[in-house]
Write a sequence for this structure.
């Protein structure tokens, strides 16, 4: 550790965020990083504790505590403190091949489990230290293309180019296998490209990584819809192994009266349309679903996706925005039954809600609510929603299981754009079905250590585990790559 007493002497300092009024005028990333010297000082806050929960990645209390990638966090915090940036890059990418993604979109499970956070109230700026390291790596050339010195002669087809697909492709290519990634969309990145708004993850960050992967020998094929315009048999005939990484992209619908009204969209379709139009023409093509047209009043679902919809709609210039949250409002501090190092189940006011407060004067979230019915106007367009209040009640006396149930109280919210963000129900099954791969009752791929019921076909990421975080997709990609390599070579060194 660079400074044994650093955690006692140095205050936590994070990057500067542009004020909401300034950042909502565009879709650019809005964090201004600390100068390298100050970032080094933040590295000195790491306690080098005896049991670094930050890198543990274990399940505690039903949630992950610490980094699922088991990043060597105390090591590279110390290297940041010393200004040994090249070595910090080396130790970071030893466990995380794509830190430019996790340092932007990961909810920082590491920081929630940081011993310093428990001891002095403020965790080490792990995520921002990670971002500083990887950006130094790109600027200095420490991160660059390194093609494998030898090829094995084995061909691997990876279906899907989201975080899991990129992770498994990267490692199998490093091993020397010849890898082709098939992506049905027009750009590489999957969830990273179209599921996450540009202000959270600038798409140039994805493009620069893809360029390196291409230089290292990976082939990318866009517009290749396996099970659609590309037969699954073609991959089975040409590849020695196939890895399905198609995500959990089947959105949960609302089977409600009035659902057929115009102006009701899945949140992911809304976000995709906005990002695609931004990248294709900077909105000149008019193809984005527009929350500003005709002074729109959008109604969005909850969670991170709902927050992304709020931030996007505000940037488009919506007249107001409401976000419905089914669960009760979390406490501002850990409850007695939620002790460190468990994931803190506390209220988070994310960037979209911050912007709504700044623009409209209030938090857009209404807790313990759900839509009961949609109303349409004479033109068939949604104009309002009937909303039910909910409360937590015991629904099974034998187990004590609770659920959110209607209280009988109802009210109407006027809205002319509805963005359904109710989670996902597993993968879109047609690709799995094209290979004859079995699915579970959760509509995820049934597997045995990533191997499916079909010989030489594997699966990983959200398609296997269900909707999850980017960091878990990366871990899935790493573990699946080792399983595929063992299948191809009889052993693995991944």
């Amino acid at each position: 550790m660079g400074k044994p007493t650093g955690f006692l002497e140095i205050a936590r300092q994070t990057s500067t965020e542009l004020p909401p009024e300034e950042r909502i005028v565009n879709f650019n990333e809005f964090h201004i990083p600390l100068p390298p010297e100050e970032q080094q000082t933040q590295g000195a806050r790491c306690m080098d504790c005896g049991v670094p929960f930050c890198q543990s990645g274990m399940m505690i209390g039903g949630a992950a505590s610490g980094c699922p990638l088991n990043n060597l966090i105390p090591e590279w915090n110390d290297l940041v403190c010393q200004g040994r940036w090249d070595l910090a890059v080396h130790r970071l990418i030893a466990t995380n091949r794509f830190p430019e993604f996790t340092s932007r979109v990961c909810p920082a499970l590491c920081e929630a489990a940081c011993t310093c956070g428990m001891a002095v109230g403020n965790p080490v700026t792990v995520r921002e230290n990670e971002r500083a390291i990887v950006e130094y790596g790109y600027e200095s050339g420490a991160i660059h293309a390194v093609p494998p010195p030898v090829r094995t002669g084995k061909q691997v087809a990876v279906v899907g180019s989201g975080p899991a697909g990129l992770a498994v492709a990267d490692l199998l290519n490093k091993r020397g296998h010849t890898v082709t990634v098939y992506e049905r969309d027009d750009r590489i990145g999957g969830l990273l490209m179209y599921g996450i708004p540009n202000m959270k993850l600038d798409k140039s960050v994805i493009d620069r990584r893809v360029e390196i992967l291409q230089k290292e020998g990976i082939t990318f094929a866009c517009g290749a819809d396996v099970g659609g315009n590309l037969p699954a048999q073609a991959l089975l005939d040409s590849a020695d192994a196939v890895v399905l990484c198609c995500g959990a992209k089947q959105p949960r619908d609302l089977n409600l009266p009035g659902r057929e009204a115009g102006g009701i969209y899945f949140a992911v379709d809304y976000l995709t349309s906005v990002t695609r139009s931004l990248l294709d023409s900077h909105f000149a093509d008019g193809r984005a679903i527009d929350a500003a047209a005709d002074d729109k009043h959008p109604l969005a679902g909850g969670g991170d996706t709902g927050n992304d919809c709020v931030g996007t709609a505000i940037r488009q210039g919506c007249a107001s925005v409401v976000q419905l949250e089914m669960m009760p409002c979390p406490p501002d501090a850990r409850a007695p039954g939620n002790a460190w190092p468990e994931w803190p189940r506390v209220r988070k006011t994310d960037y979209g809600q911050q912007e709504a407060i700044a623009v409209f004067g209030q938090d857009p979230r209404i807790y313990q609510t759900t839509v009961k019915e949609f109303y349409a106007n004479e033109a068939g367009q949604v104009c309002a929603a009937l909303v039910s209040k909910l409360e937590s009640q015991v629904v099974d006396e034998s187990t004590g299981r609770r659920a959110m149930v209607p209280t009988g109280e109802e009210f109407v919210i006027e809205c002319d754009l509805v963005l359904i963000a109710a989670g996902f129900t597993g993968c879109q099954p047609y690709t799995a079905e094209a290979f004859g791969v079995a699915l579970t009752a959760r509509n995820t791929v049934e597997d045995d250590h990533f191997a499916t019921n079909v010989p030489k076909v594997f699966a990983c990421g959200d398609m296997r585990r269900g909707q999850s975080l980017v960091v878990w997709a990366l871990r899935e990609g790493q573990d699946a790559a080792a399983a595929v390599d063992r299948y191809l070579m009889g052993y693995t060194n991944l």
In short: The radius of gyration is 23 Å. The chain has 19 helices and 17 strands. The longest helix spans residues 470-489. The mean pLDDT is 96.
